[in-house]
């Protein structure tokens, strides 16, 4: 819910004070930037620009909102000209005369460099401060967090954002899904984000699904058509039970498990009957190696007999590195003993309280995980839940309020580059191409702002 | 934006799987609770219930949403009965048969105790899991954080939530304002939250306002009417300048400052002219004791001559304990030397990166701050940005899936109470009154759920 009211009260009191001082139309330039990279890192992914542009493109106060602003300002404010200046005029003028230049969304950016430059009548631009800072702050933070997770996980792994239930509010969850995708994740579990932004959706089932079943006896509809539609297996449960016995009798696998959990088996069979082409099972409700993995394999092998290929397993607790390696060995043994093509490559997803540090630790230990489902630490940015974005006045009426260098680099010229944080690290670089990072995203219009912003609507 | 789509994909895949297994109507009970208090503390404030009830009260899928869910499910799903079961039927049935009991919002709660108990057809209740966990998680976390800040600050201090620009997304900001107020804050700077929830609004001006002025010369409209309307001061600036000279010549104050910053003075005068009844100045743009406080006092004294009472100052950097004590001494000296009633009690607000720990440190050092404006640490719950709320199946078809004690305590009977975390701490208590903590917040309706939840719309 982005409305022009999503701002601090003092943006309105300042606008009124600018107007009272006759300064509201003075041309001001504000820079939006941050002072330090998050997570102790050396880069930030710039995100949230689209939302800022959307805000200004749709910037209008409703009559109701204007009445609320009036009521919120001190009673001494002069509001006698209300009838003269209709809200439509206010709404039309607010954004017309503002220009926004910015670095493109998704670019890697650094501290103290302007990410956005907003120019316009001081009273109008001032109104955008809190909203813009809010929209850039979390978006850039979580996109950066996602990029850092991608960097540690490596390019070949599937990264799934599973953070909705831990995100800071419903919209926090939607922003998280959007900006994690921008930062390099492959998919989300968040259906609303999938619908809004076209992000691929992923999901399987929870522990509740497994524990809601008692035994395979309660499954009444047991038949399953083969993948190509050519035949029907009348009793899929028996086929699964037969595979379970075969696995138990196997030389290689027999010692690993005895009786598996029947409530879990019932849940897996039911899930496979519902989604024979997309069978992915959560295997840690009872015991991963003694029940979950054997039960999964029995169902997967029965599906294989009907031409279906199971997707894989999900591990959500325990020693993920060890369990993934054991599971992989189990799959490979089946591949070898029963000659099931590619069974050894069955996908393993892990998803228990993962973050950059645990991903790194898993890499060091060695693991067989193909996909990571990451929630809490990713979406709340646990390591640092806020980025210090600021919105500073740098110029008013062509008078600088912060000194800026006017040097422009040219291609082919040798230039001295400084490390952004370590003064002693420097290098000469000859740029092959020089690109203007700031582009115009909101051109504004000519003319001056003549309305009274807050007092007079 | 709370829609039934704000959930994980697997809630829908499970609903479909329950239906395929013929289990979708089985009566299930889910408990929502958390396992550990946040911030290393011993209590949590329960919040977010109203949003959960609103979600269920307005639970309906649009045609568009149903089409999206269908498209997101694996293609093997049976959707041939779509025409039979209109979305209206699906929408009507989803919530009818669900009962919700919960502890009242705002109550202090403890780990492992059910906060909400949701009962209904397993496939329907399962659909609520992610949304409910999301809505309770951050709400309870930030309400608890606010309560902890209130506890450290003490009852007499004014607590202002200033977190919007650092909150995790726009809606994160609105939730923060709402639940900080519930947790014991007095006001917010967030205009949208003020409008939505009637929370008192507070705000003054920013550093940009101060630096946007050059000198008092640029102020063209210099007159100010007295508070009672009986006379007009034609040149308020001269009156302020006269006070500044008086302060400079004073025996007690003279040594503290020399020339104050004129751009700051111009900003303060302008702000006072705009809000003579609500003059609150940010005094740390240049130098608090050598410029900000003397400038503020000169303006406040000129206002006082016209019958207005200045509100106070805001400190946003530096050693807040020291600066507040120095400012208080300055105010008291004026009170004494010039006989300005209550000037010594002028309000001091502090607002720089405050949190529980810094509030505690300020208390230990001794300070003269009357109001705290708290942002980043409060709203992002920096110390622990997520609460581990879970949603667990405890019963299905009257079969327990988690063992629960059935003991009910009675008034007048001696009962043994255990400390929730320390097993060795116990005490006998004779309750004078026994109150049922769980109340019914959504009564549901009789009848069974007969539609196909996801597959058939």
Automatic annotation (TrEMBL), chains A, B:
Pfam families: NAPRTase_C (PF17956), NAPRTase_N (PF17767). It comes from Rehmannia glutinosa. Keywords: Ligase, Phosphoprotein, Pyridine nucleotide biosynthesis, Transferase. Gene3D superfamilies: Aldolase class I (3.20.20.70), nicotinate phosphoribosyltransferase (3.20.140.10). Transiently phosphorylated on a His residue during the reaction cycle. Phosphorylation strongly increases the affinity for substrates and increases the rate of nicotinate D-ribonucleotide production. Dephosphorylation regenerates the low-affinity form of the enzyme, leading to product release. Its EC number is 6.3.4.21. Catalyzes the first step in the biosynthesis of NAD from nicotinic acid, the ATP-dependent synthesis of beta-nicotinate D-ribonucleotide from nicotinate and 5-phospho-D-ribose 1-phosphate. Helps prevent cellular oxidative stress via its role in NAD biosynthesis. It is an enzyme of class 6 (ligase). Pathway: Cofactor biosynthesis; NAD(+) biosynthesis; nicotinate D-ribonucleotide from nicotinate: step 1/1. NCBIfam families: NAPRTase_put (TIGR01513). Residues 406-442 form the Nicotinate phosphoribosyltransferase C-terminal domain. This is Nicotinate phosphoribosyltransferase. InterPro entries: Aldolase_TIM, NAPRTase_C, NAPRTase_N, Nic_PRibTrfase-Fam, Nic_PRibTrfase_pncB, Nicotinate_pribotase-like_C. It catalyses: 5-phospho-alpha-D-ribose 1-diphosphate + nicotinate + ATP + H2O = nicotinate beta-D-ribonucleotide + ADP + phosphate + diphosphate. It comes from the Eukaryota.
